[in-house]
Amino acid sequence: IASALCATSPSMVWLIAFRTLQGIGAGCIQPVVFTILGDIFPLKQRAPLSGLFSSMWAIAAIIGPALGAVFVST
C-alpha cells in the first residue's frame, strides 16, 4: 500500500511521508519472519533459514539501487 502511495504522491513532502511508512513496514517484517521461523521450524533448521532470509535482505540492498538506476535512465 505504501509503495502505491509513493507512486502517486503529489509532492515531495508526501513522498517522504509515504517512504517513512514503507520503512516502518519493512522494519516490522524482519522480526515477524524470525518469529514465524522459530515457531514453524525445528531448531536444527532455523540457522540456515535465518541466514537465507538475511542474505536476501543484503542482496536486495545491493541490487535494488542498481535496478532503480536502470529504470530511471530508460
Explain what you see.
By secondary structure, this protein is mainly alpha-helical. It has one domain. The chain has three helices and no strands. It has helices spanning about 1-5, 10-40, 45-74. The longest helix has about 30 residues, at about 45-74. It starts with a helix and ends with a helix. The model has no long low-confidence stretch (mean pLDDT about 90).
Structure in a nutshell:
This protein is an all-alpha fold and 74 residues long. Helix content is 89%, strand content 0%.
Indicate the topology.
Blueprint: H1 2-7, H2 12-40, H3 43-73
In total, the number of domains comes to 1
Low-confidence stretches: none
Query: What portion of residues is helical?
Result: over 70%
Strand content: under 5%
Biggest sheet, in brief? none
The number of helical elements comes to 3
Overall radius of gyration: 16 Å
* Euclidean distance between termini CA atoms: 25 Å
